């Protein structure tokens, strides 16, 4: 292990809650949803069912009950409460002027792979699907931190997030109707489920926000800084799950969003940011279909998924007009060896992604194919010690703009059972990520003037897990060493004569992060439980000029409390992001990130939420939540866009 790794102390602990048995690749026994323990099963970390305590990786589980208690409207909302995970967006509630929300794990941007029921769901290195699935359709979310490219390929550099959806479980037809009103949004939804199907529809309306970015003192007229406000917006979501047989399931996701934002320049006469400058409005549509085959008797699993995301301009100022598509095929088989003591998992996957730029004067189309073979063998050395060796050979086919290449990825994991309730693991692996398939697009045309390299590197981590029915603890120490880290900059900073108003992807020199993580939960009584956690790291990037710069927040803290008595459930969550990276803007309002200039750090983010639910009868519940209790202007990215101000939601659900 690296010297810098050994110089950092580690402590962590796991929070969670749920007591269900998971079936691989989605679907779950929904009769047990309250408490999660380390004896329960995870499916993401090793591609097969293993007890969390027996899994040599840093894992966190968010259950359906935790999603409900937190008041999260999307998976994107819920993930902000995990230490070491940063939900990055360009506007409040995971939405912004552009549909580019994503999840960063351990400070690495564009290094997180999102799965839905085990099948990849990223597009252009982004995680748009985090907001697409109604939270009511989610059974649980598994988060695996650390290099995961050996089992899952490109984009799984810092970790994997697996959204596991609910499968039909009952013979009897039943459903629910929900309505919600709030200070910022309102929605209504209906869910119906039977023996072989479940379907959820949700309609959402969001109010405009007059300002969602920090304003700097006006100094001179030559700068491009503007005040940003969001329009009223709407979203329709449909999620359909079909059980075609005991081994074959299918699901379909549809999401349509109509939203926009306005920009205002400074008016020197009234001395305020009121002069209309730009008005952008887009329609975003997402369609995803997946077919999943899972034969537990033979150990064979296969999935085929198609994803399409379109962006359409709705007014004159809006010019982005694109289609992004993705095909994913994955198949694997598990063998039990030596009387079930050892396991071998091997498989093949194929990924085709495409991007079409539909501008009449700047049309372009790109496609790229990737395919790989992988295997992981777990050997039980004795009653307490096991080791896993994984390998992957990953091929990227050249397309005229990106070079073809072959990447070999190894991984070694060990697990030592210190007692029936405690384990210690080590996880070392190489991972990589290809540039987005649309990265050759510049302001005028598809270009090969500035080619990117994949970002790749190693992650070293070790940790302990402890747990029983009342208490759980996880401790993890990690070190990441990544080459060619991706970064978005203005085009004129990397290409002579480039457009200063166009963003392009480029490579930095290096990225490193050494840190510790802590997650802990305890059931204090039948009525009261607590969760807490923390992250401390040193994420930094080295640019071509040789300077190291902090690239993400160094500190994250979380604390939560749940109280349940009779028909009432109360929940409060608090999380802090501190010691943050330099702001993209100078205090004069001039953009300084591309040139490496900065004169202040992004302010701390402190979010506190309070939610409650009351069961009126077996078929009726009412819930109420207040979010951002302190009403802070909380920056959510390095452009200092803010999360929502203090807001409330009141909802009612009737089941039939």
UniProtKB/TrEMBL annotation:
Residue ranges of every copy of the TonB-dependent receptor-like beta-barrel domain listed in the record: 219-629
Coiled-coil residue spans: none
**Does this UniProt record's set of keywords contain Membrane?**
yes
In Gene Ontology terms, what is one molecular function of this protein?
A: siderophore uptake transmembrane transporter activity
Q: Name one GO cellular component term.
A: cell outer membrane
Positions of the TonB-dependent receptor plug domain:
53-160
Q: Where in the cell is it found?
A: Cell outer membrane
InterPro entries the record matches: Beta-barrel_TonB, Beta-barrel_TonB_sf, Plug_dom, Plug_dom_sf, TonB-dep_rcpt-like, TonB_rcpt_CS
Q: Which UniProt keywords apply?
A: Cell outer membrane, Membrane, Receptor, Signal, TonB box, Transmembrane, Transmembrane beta strand, Transport
Q: What is this protein called?
A: TonB-dependent receptor plug domain protein
Instruction: Give the organism's phylogenetic lineage.
Output: Bacteria, Bacillati, Bacillota, Negativicutes, Selenomonadales
């Amino acid at each position: 292990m690296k010297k810098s790794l050994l110089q950092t102390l580690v402590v962590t602990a796991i929070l969670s809650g749920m007591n269900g048995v998971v079936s691989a690749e989605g679907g779950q026994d929904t009769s047990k949803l309250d408490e999660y323990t380390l004896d329960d099963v995870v499916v993401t970390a090793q591609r097969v069912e293993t007890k969390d305590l027996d899994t040599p990786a840093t894992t966190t589980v968010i259950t359906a009950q935790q999603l409900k208690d937190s008041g999260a409207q999307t998976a994107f909302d819920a993930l902000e409460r995990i230490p070491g995970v940063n939900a990055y967006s360009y506007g409040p509630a995971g939405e912004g002027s552009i549909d580019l929300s994503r999840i960063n794990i351990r400070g690495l941007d564009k290094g997180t792979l999102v799965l839905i029921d085990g099948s990849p769901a990223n597009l252009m290195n982004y995680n748009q699907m985090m907001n697409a699935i109604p939270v009511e359709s989610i059974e649980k979310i598994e988060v695996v931190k650390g290099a995961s490219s050996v089992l899952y390929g490109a984009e799984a550099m810092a970790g994997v997030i697996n959204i596991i959806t609910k499968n039909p479980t009952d013979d009897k037809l039943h459903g629910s109707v929900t309505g919600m009103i709030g200070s910022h949004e309102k929605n209504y939804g209906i869910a119906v489920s039977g023996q072989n199907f479940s379907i959820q529809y949700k309609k959402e309306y969001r109010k405009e926000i007059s300002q969602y970015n920090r304003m700097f003192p006006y100094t001179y007229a030559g700068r491009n800084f503007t005040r940003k406000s969001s329009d009223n917006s709407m979203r329709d979501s449909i999620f359909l799950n079909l059980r075609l047989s005991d081994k074959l399931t299918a699901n379909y996701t549809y999401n349509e969003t109509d939203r926009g934002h306005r920009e205002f320049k400074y008016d020197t006469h009234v001395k305020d940011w009121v002069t209309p400058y730009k008005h952008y409005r887009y329609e975003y549509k997402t369609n995803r279909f997946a077919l999943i085959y899972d034969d537990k008797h033979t150990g064979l699993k296969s999935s085929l998924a198609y994803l399409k995301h379109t962006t359409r301009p709705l007014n004159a100022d809006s010019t982005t007009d694109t289609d992004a598509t993705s095909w994913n095929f994955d198949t694997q088989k598990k063998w039990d060896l030596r009387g079930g003591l050892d396991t071998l998992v091997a498989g093949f996957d194929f990924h085709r992604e495409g991007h079409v730029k539909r501008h009449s004067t700047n049309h372009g189309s790109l496609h790229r194919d990737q395919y790989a073979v992988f295997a992981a063998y777990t050997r039980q050395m004795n009653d307490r010690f096991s080791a896993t060796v994984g390998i992957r050979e990953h091929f990227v086919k050249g397309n005229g703009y990106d070079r073809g290449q072959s990447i070999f990825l190894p991984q070694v994991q060990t697990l030592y059972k210190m007692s029936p309730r405690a384990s210690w693991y080590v996880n070392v692996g190489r991972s990589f990520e290809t540039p987005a398939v649309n990265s050759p697009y510049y302001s005028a045309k598809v270009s090969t003037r500035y080619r990117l390299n994949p970002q790749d590197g190693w992650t070293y981590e070790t940790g302990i897990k402890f747990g029983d029915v009342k208490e759980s603890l996880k401790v993890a120490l990690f070190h990441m060493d990544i080459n060619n880290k991706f970064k978005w900059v203005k085009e004129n900073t990397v290409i002579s004569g480039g457009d200063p108003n166009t963003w392009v992807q480029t490579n930095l020199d290096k990225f490193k992060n050494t840190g510790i993580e802590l997650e802990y939960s305890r059931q204090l009584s039948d009525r009261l439980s607590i969760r807490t956690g923390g992250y401390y790291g040193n994420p930094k990037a080295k640019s071509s000029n040789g300077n190291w710069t902090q690239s993400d927040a160094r500190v994250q803290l979380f604390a939560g409390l749940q109280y349940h008595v009779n028909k009432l459930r109360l929940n409060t969550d608090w999380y802090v992001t501190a010691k943050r990276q330099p702001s993209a803007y100078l205090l004069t309002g001039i953009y300084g990130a591309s040139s490496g200039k900065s004169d202040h750090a992004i302010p701390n983010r402190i979010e506190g939420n309070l939610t409650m639910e009351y069961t009126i009868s077996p078929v009726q519940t009412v819930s109420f939540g207040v979010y951002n209790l302190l009403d802070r202007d909380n920056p959510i990215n390095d452009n200092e866009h803010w999360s929502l101000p203090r807001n409330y939601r009141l909802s009612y659900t009737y089941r039939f």
